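One record is set out below.
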Amino acid sequence: MALLKKIWRIALDAFWQFNIDDGWAIASHIALSALMSLFPFLLILTAMAGIFGSANLADESANLILEAWPAEVAAPIALEIHSVLASAQGQVLTIGTVLALYFASSGIESLRIGLNRAYGVTDPRPIWLTRVESIGYVILGAISLLALSFFVLLAPLIWRTALLRFPAIEPFSDVVTFWRLAIVSLLLIVTLIVVHMWLPAGRRRFRDIIPGILATLALWMVGGTLFGRYLADFAFAYSIYYAGLASTMIALIFLYLTASIFIYGGELNATILKARALKQNAGNAP
């Protein structure tokens, strides 16, 4: 019981600190930046996939991104995403793609701002250096996503070949779906670890960021499920209020919810670190 009270107190303190640090306002900035960065990032994926000689990689990468979204949110925007991928000329890196790279990095910068505020740190580096770092994260993220997409595309082929040789394993066909979900989950976890450890100023140990990451994943799962259920019953309201912008507003609100939870994860880590430091100082006091 004492442990539960302690957990509740820390979670509540993190929420109040989230309010003090203007978490809601920063979450709206992250949500808008993420939505504005999504399509430039997809253009970068298309350009890189063209270099590797497979346009299907970009399409599969988009599917992996949307796989982490509730179906009610992903379905309306999926048509727009695949339309962009179909019309994009990804055979060569053009000036347009270079500009897309810059705009896509704005999404990374918004995450940096949110985590710097949550951890109570100030980045002393010049703006141009942090922007270059953000561009590096975009490129690294695109390459990693394309690599994962390659294995996702390859998995059904490997499974069909295995079925021809070993027909007895046919009842386990759902294993491909399992691995697809596992890849998406791994992608989310690795991304959270990277951004919490290295994106904001300062350095944190792995154990320092685990509580916030676990809370973020759990709240994302609960929040995504509840938001999906809400849309299943009331999605028509968005069509009434926003007409042709309904799918965009649904995506924006979902990203706002996601960003709020993400920042809260950072606040939770910071609250635990402060409590740990206070306890250590009290123990060292004469």
